[in-house]
Amino acid sequence: MSMVYLFAAFSGLATLLLFYAVYRLYTELGSANTQYRDKPPRGFQYVWPLINILANSFGFLISEGRVQACLLRLRRAGQDYALTPHQFYAGKWVAALGFAGVGVILAGKGGGTMGALLGALLGFHYPDIWLRDHTKIRNLALLKALPFFLDIVTLSVESGLNLTGALQKAVDRCPPGPLMVEVNRVLREIRGGKPRIEALRALADRLDYAPISSLVSALIQGELMGSSLGPILRAQSDQRRTERFLRAEKLAMEAPVKMLGPLIMFIFPCTFIVLGFPIVMKFMQSGI
């Protein structure tokens, strides 16, 4: 009987030590200092302690090349102040585990292993898909806001302000968005002592987006040549507006082609059923 009590006592002590270890792991590694960082994406917020524990415990397994490549992608998506590369990879591991569990449930008893493998594969690549789609949406928002922003900068420069003052005036007048966030970052770097040309080059490298790179190249060339920035900015504004119009025209021309699939697969069969059902019923009633 004493052995049973001794075993129960050691089991209870082991359980308490396990809970204490989990609590210390959560308090020391499960939280991250987000006072000076942006909020993480919503999907990461749900499992944020687990992501931080994995990032701090197993982040050393990620090579430096992968970390730098992931950091570049996070910068293009505007998430470099919300996620570190280690946290992003930890999110991929957590998503793989979660999707593997869902795959096991959906596959049932017979295909549990295959469902887990497919779910883990999909979950591991889902954050990459989300990051790529988020980058595309952000670039589209940049393209839409760029012409009006350049118009304000052009008017400010032609009225006598320098480029830094014109950028600040445009930020004050334009609606908030990704472009304003990036221009504000450029202005903070300039106020912090960074040369304006270097701050603009950092903007182009950070976004890696053709319209922004073209604008930055034109501004840097104008700064170095000492030419007037008004005509350069006006030409850039006209070009961006033309590109936006051509993109809208391209999407409008692609719409009929994209509608063929739903038409053939869903709309046409329903239409044929509605039209053919009375005819078939009449044939059946007449004995044909």
Report on the structure:
The protein has helices at residues 2-29, 42-46, 48-58, 64-76, 85-107, 112-158, 163-173, 178-191, 196-207, 210-225, 229-285. The N and C termini lie far apart (88 Å). It has 288 residues and is an all-alpha fold. The radius of gyration is 29 Å and the shape is flat. 22% of the residues are buried. It is built from eleven helices and no strands.
Q: Top keywords for this entry?
A:
single chain, 288 residues, mainly alpha, 11 helices, 82% helix, flat, Type II secretion system F family protein, cell membrane, transmembrane
Q: What is the element layout, followed by pairings?
A:
Elements: H1 2-29, H2 42-46, H3 48-58, H4 64-76, H5 85-107, H6 112-158, H7 163-173, H8 178-191, H9 196-207, H10 210-225, H11 229-285
Helix pairs in contact: 3-5, 5-6, 6-7, 6-11, 7-8, 8-9, 9-10, 10-11
